[in-house]
Design brief:
Strand content: over 45%
Shape: globular
Number of domains: 1
Strand order of the largest sheet: 2-1-3
Largest sheet: 3 strands, antiparallel
Length: 55
């Protein structure tokens, strides 16, 4: 099963968020359209690091 571990940085606050997903592009869009409760209204978010694993 493939997945990404990723780190986002908020351009507004400088805070970081760590998450994982199978679709990194869709997930970043969700963060930046306020559809993720833990990051809502704290962005915009920029992808600063990711690693891909396929188990």
């Amino acid at each position: 099963m493939p997945f990404y571990l990723y780190i986002l940085e908020s351009e507004a606050t400088g805070r970081y968020y760590i998450g994982h997903t199978q679709d990194i592009i869709q997930r970043l869009q969700r963060h930046n359209t306020n559809r993720v409760p833990s990051t809502r209204h704290k962005g915009p978010w920029v992808l600063v690091y990711f690693i891909f694993k396929n188990y």
